Each structure stands twice: as C-alpha cells, then as structure tokens.
C-alpha cells in the first residue's frame, strides 16, 4: 500500500461516506430495476467507487468531468443529489435529466458533471474540448474524462489524445481498467495490456496503479490534475479496478470464475477504507455515516417513487431553444 | 417448415451460408465467446471456430474497414454491430468506401459485404441507442438496404444478402428478436431483394411499412376493421432496391396511402416513397399521403414519452381516418 501523503481522517471518512453512498444507491437501484421501476440498461459501478470518489476529491468544483454510460458513481461523487439520481433512473421529471436521459445519461451542469455518454469513446473529444475552452479562456479549469479499457481501441480516444497532447490541454484522461469490456477480458481486446503506454506515442505524461485505496487514487490523480492546472499538460492514467456485477443487469457475468470474483472482493476499496478507519478508532463515526446514508437512500427512493413523470411538452422544449419551424 | 424466432432465423441464415461458402465469416463485438449481445450468434463460435466467428474489440470503424478490404480481395464478411446506432462510428467506411469502390474502380472491384445489426427503437435505452438508421444509408447509391418484419423474411433476405456481390445493410428490428414464425428449411430458400409483400389484403387504404412497424400497422388495421375500414398493409421488406410496382399496385387498388416507419419525419425513406407514388400514380390518389413516424425529437428515456414518440396503432388509425376524410 502506497498511500503516499498524510491525510486527515476527516478526509478519509468523507471519502468513505461518498463511496458508501454510491454503493448503497446502486444496490437500491438494482432492486428497483428488478421491481420494474427502472427500465432500459442499468450499468452498475459497484466495486469501482474509489476511482470516481478519489479523483473527484482532487478536483475543484469548477473543473469539468465527463464519463461514459457507467456514470452514477461520478455523478454522485460530483455532488448530484441521490434524489436527482434515483428520480432519473425512475424516469421522473425531478431527475437530473428530467427523466429523458436515464441511467446512461446523467447530467448535472451545476456541478460541472457534463454527462454520461452511450457511444463509448465519443465523449473523449468532448472532454478535450472542455479543456480547450479552459485554455482558451485562461480560466485555470481542468477537465477529467473517464472511460473503460474496452473503449481505448476506438478512434475518437486516439484523436482526443492526439489533440490534447499536441495543444497541451489541461486534461486528465482516466482509463478505468476493470479487466472486462462486457464479456471480453482485457487480453482479448488489447495487444499491449499496459494501457498507460499509449501515452508514450503522444508524448503525454502517464501513470498506472491499482485503485484499492481511495486516498491513493486521490493522490495519484491529484498529481495529474495539478500538472494540468499548473503547466497545462495532459496525462493518461490507467487505474486498475474491478466491477463486482455483470456488465449490465442482463449480464450474469459467466465469463469469469466465482473464485476470481471472491478474490477481488477481498480488495473491495470500501472494505479497505472501513477496516483502516475502524482500526484508527472511528467505529462510531462509520456507523453514523452508514445510518445517515441508509436514511438518505430510503428517502431518495421514496422521492423518486412519488415524483411526477415528464410530459410530452418537454420534448420539443428540450430539442431546440424556443419555438422552431421545421 | 420450422417454427423459429426472428433471432434464430437470422442465425440459421448465417449458419447455412457459412456452411455453403468458406469465404463467409462473422465479425463483431461479443459475437463469439459471449454468444452475441442479443444471442443472435449463439453456438456459432463452437460450430465454426475463432477463425470464422471473430470477436473484435470496440473498433466499429476498424473492423468495418478491415472487412471492406477483405471483401475487395475475395472474402465475404458479415459484420455485426451491437446496434445500428454504433454504425455511425463506421459511417465513413460504409459511405465513402463500401458504397463507392465499385464505381471508383470503374467496375474492377466490388465489395460483397453484409452489415447487420438491431435497428430502431429498443425499450427505454435513451437517445443514443434507439434510432432507426436505415434512412441515412438508403440515401447512398452503391448500398442495398433490407428490413425484414418476419422470421421467414429475416432468413430469406439475409441469405440473399450474403449471396449478393454488393454491400447490403441488414436492419433487424431489436424488438422483433423474440417473435416466432414459420420459416422454410430449404437451404436454397432466399427472398429476392426488391420485392414487397402484401401482409394484409384490403381495399380502402394502403398502410405501407417495413420492419417492426408492419406489426403496428396490422394492429391498426384490425382496429380499423371494427369501424368498417378495410386497410391493406404492404410490407416493403427492401428499401433499396424499392419495389415501386408494389406501391403503384396497392394505390391503384385503394387510392389512399399512409406510411409508417421508425425514424424521424424529416426526409428519410418516407419522402422517397411519397415521391415515387406521386410520380407514378398521381391520378390514382384521392388524398394526400400521410406519414406516421417517430415524433421529431431524440428518443426520451421515460417509458410513457417513449411510447408517445413511437408510431402507435392509434396514430396510424387516425392518419387513415384523415386520408379517408372521416375525421370528426
Ligand atoms: C461505439 C460503441 N460500440 C459499442 C458499444 C456497446 N458497448 C457498450 S459498453 C461496451 C463495453 C465497454 O467496455 P469498457 O469500455 O471496458 O467499459 P466497462 O463496461 O468495463 O465499464 C460495449 C461494447 C458502445 N456503447 N459504443
């Protein structure tokens, strides 16, 4: 374990709270999905929480963040309320995208969460574009983009990398390597398994580590964020992680063994943080956090249940600004 | 005859053609070990091995371009996209290479490739996974575009596509995969491209559709029958080539037409059909042709709004009443 710097237990507790919130939120979402309250695809982030939580803790609120369809974790980490998140899954007008986006398209402009996207890799140039805007305006903001290792084969990822490096844009590109793209393991999608090596060809800074400890994620990604902010240099970071559930709710995940899953669950970042904090005498604080989150989760489900649905009048109003002659 | 599901019919066509012709291979994301994202290619890896059932990384543009190249030199690839929505990533390869190579080369080269995927509305998967993409491709000379509405057509048309020497785009309706129907077992059963089918005979109005909306149109026709309106439902099956004689025949019979299909109303396949009918059978028309399509917005996630956006039997029936001047 290389938690490199000294951190207050308060920070660690706060990050644990976020991770626990995301975990419990998604467990409830899975249950609501089984009850038919949520439709379409539901891709859970369970197991990967330390990545979004650690990274976001190193961002300023004004920095930009973008991800793919596995987006609940980042949205909550960025400060979206669990009410807005659950309502979106329920397709309600009180949801973060008014019930029009669903699980894959969480947006929260107020918190500079610029979306979850369904066409993988296509969002990388968007993220680079936000970094471009930041450099253009010289406003010191940094952009961070998340994608899976499966998506790094796609052209848009490379074109985004190419321009970010060429124009020295303040962006951190985080590849969440959870070892599987749907049912395909890493070794079957990439000729070189060290994704961070892709940075070399673009002359970009790089890093690579296991996301077992949220504070380490915070520090390592934080370093890249600082570099982006100070010298406007992009970084490619490969974070090794693992998703405990299938790719989506319809995927039983049969392409991996129960033993592999068990082994990885032993490194669950929530467990790691909890054990460490408990060891430092924070048992009560942990229990308090967990009890509060339980109340919050129960509340957000009730809120989503009771919220109204969006009406058809929203459709045109969200397609163009104002009246539009077609 | 066997009773099979639409997805099994697609699979049967691929298996039969791969057994018949060594040059045919299947490539796409999760088509092999995972047995297909929609289980269309289930069992095929075991049957043909990884040389001919190829799992590709997420590289739509790459594996499309590679397959176009392989087709130029004699192979006959079948490319599966997880949905047609993602084919947009490979649009340049399809539009600028697959479609144009025959002509650019003065006829020296050709591209016998089949591109296939689920198309159109799914259920609540939001705006980036729900669109009907045939309109973009039917626009392009050099491409052929098919859209089967039944298991038998799925098999027969796909076999025709695989045997064809030009690029054929095969639009499977995602929500039809589970549909069952009778399918001929004859290994040489093919449904020729460019021949529409009358799915229901009628004399008062023609409802023209393809893919999933054929079934919605049939529902509308059943509803209209109760009001004494006898609707004919024409299933186009093939969008390019388009069976214009079938359009003329049905309009000669009913003198009124309503088009229904998935996708946005602006431009698209519907504009083409309206043009052909008014050009070839103007004198037969007793009313303007109406279209029932997606509403003119990206697809929302919310279930009720999604239903609102989709063509529904009620909306089709309304349009029929309108062309019959029976609207209250
Ligand atoms: C361009 C494109 N092709 C295919 C898909 C279908 N698809 C959705 S997720 C996925 C696997 C992605 O794996 P990875 O990027 O590793 O992310 P993870 O699911 O592991 O978080 C695929 C193939 C897509 N969304 N976009």
TrEMBL record, chain A:
Pfam families: E1_dh (PF00676). Residues 304-326 are annotated as: Disordered. CDD domains: TPP_E1_PDC_ADC_BCADC (cd02000). Keywords: Oxidoreductase, Pyruvate, Thiamine pyrophosphate. Its cofactor is thiamine diphosphate. It comes from the Bacteria. GO terms for biological process: pyruvate decarboxylation to acetyl-CoA. One of its GO terms (molecular function) is pyruvate dehydrogenase (acetyl-transferring) activity. It catalyses: N(6)-[(R)-lipoyl]-L-lysyl-[protein] + pyruvate + H(+) = N(6)-[(R)-S(8)-acetyldihydrolipoyl]-L-lysyl-[protein] + CO2. Its EC number is 1.2.4.1. Residues 17-312 form the Dehydrogenase E1 component domain. The keyword Oxidoreductase applies. The pyruvate dehydrogenase complex catalyzes the overall conversion of pyruvate to acetyl-CoA and CO(2). PANTHER family: PYRUVATE DEHYDROGENASE E1 COMPONENT SUBUNIT ALPHA, PYRUVATE DEHYDROGENASE E1 COMPONENT, ALPHA SUBUNIT BACTERIAL AND ORGANELLAR. Heterodimer of an alpha and a beta chain. NCBIfam families: PDH_E1_alph_y (TIGR03182). This is Pyruvate dehydrogenase E1 component subunit alpha. It comes from Polyangium spumosum. The lineage of its organism: Bacteria, Pseudomonadati, Myxococcota, Polyangia, Polyangiales.
Automatic annotation (TrEMBL), chain B:
Its cofactor is thiamine diphosphate. Residues 4-179 form the Transketolase-like pyrimidine-binding domain. Its EC number is 1.2.4.1. Gene3D superfamilies: 3.40.50.920, 3.40.50.970. It is an enzyme of class 1 (oxidoreductase). GO terms for molecular function: pyruvate dehydrogenase (acetyl-transferring) activity. InterPro entries: THDP-binding, Transketo_C/PFOR_II, Transketolase-like_Pyr-bd, Transketolase_C. Pfam families: Transket_pyr, Transketolase_C. The keyword Oxidoreductase applies. Keywords: Oxidoreductase, Pyruvate, Thiamine pyrophosphate. The keyword Oxidoreductase applies. PANTHER family: PYRUVATE DEHYDROGENASE E1 COMPONENT BETA SUBUNIT, PYRUVATE DEHYDROGENASE E1 COMPONENT SUBUNIT BETA. This is Pyruvate dehydrogenase complex E1 component subunit beta.
